[in-house]
Design a protein that fits this description.
The protein is mainly α. It has a domain at 137-226: Orthogonal Bundle (Recoverin, domain 1). It is 46% helix and 8% strand. The chain has eleven helices and six strands. The longest helix has 18 residues, at 179-196. It is globular.
Amino acid sequence: MGVFLDSEDRRISRHFFNVAAAQEWLRSGTGMCPMTRAPIASVLAVPSIIDDPDGWFGAVDIDGDGRLSVLEVVECLKAQLPVDNSALDAAASDTNHWMWQQWDSDGSGFIERDELLQPQGLAAYVRTAFAQHEQRGPPDIKADKDAWYEFWDEDRSGSLDKEEVVRALLKTLRMTHEPLQVQMMRGTIEAVWCIFDEDGSGCIERDEFPRPGDGPADPITAPVEQG
């Protein structure tokens, strides 16, 4: 993932983009961020929090104040990791949630650089929770839909919400996170969602997800089956 910087190497927004798409936009676009219309001067690739937590901290620190707010942390985790967005949003709104109490050890309301690197800090948590997931990669949805579903059900809730399905298909289809492609994918999922979310829960439970053998008639996996 990448972020846009201004002429003084400061983040111009909280938005994240596919690096290649962002660089192409910088070369051939309007010279302004497609989301905020602010002038852009360069693209910064956001390092992995697992491999370079110090570099990650600097890239995520939008306002450059040397500390990370809940919003700054949440937006980057959503962009970089296969997390349950609704669960993360719920945790972000709860100041007493165990995550913030553990990661913000001094209770300041922010994660400072030294807190990020502590043994019980955010970097250590992500390394433990996601390193193995990232290394093995997602199963082939065409070969094993059950395994694919389980891989993307990162929180083991037994359900996938719309944003989880959108993110999973974008990565499965090797599409970029350029805003137009994300919007198109989200529109496609929205159009077929009611077919599978039979109970109207807002999520696709495992028993609602298309089973192996459903074939290309399955609107959700048809792009993968045909590709």
